[in-house]
Design brief:
By secondary structure, the protein is an alpha+beta fold. About 40% of the residues lie in helices and about 25% in strands.
Length: about 80
């Protein structure tokens, strides 16, 4: 199984969208520990949303779609919808 996940940093007030074939919490640990790149800017990242996929291609396609939104509003709406389901 593969997952698309959204992390949130209150310190930066930013989202990070990623995809992994690993456990999402294990991937979060990697983001928080000795990681370079965008997520290295803060150490308060939290997993706030996940979706599961059978194939890597499907997960990567969804990740690309979410990243293409480039809108905090749309991402917040997605998270809010999931929390009411």
């Amino acid at each position: 199984m593969f997952s698309v996940y959204i992390l949130y940093s209150a310190q930066l007030d930013k989202f990070y969208i990623g995809c992994t074939g690993d456990d999402v919490l294990g991937r979060l640990a990697k983001h928080l520990c000795h990681h370079r790149g965008f997520t290295a800017k803060a150490k308060d990242w939290q997993v706030i949303y996940t979706e599961r996929f059978v194939t890597k291609a499907a997960a990567m396609s969804r990740e690309k779609q979410l990243k293409g939104w480039k809108s905090k509003t749309r991402i917040n709406e997605l998270i809010a919808r999931r929390s009411t389901e």
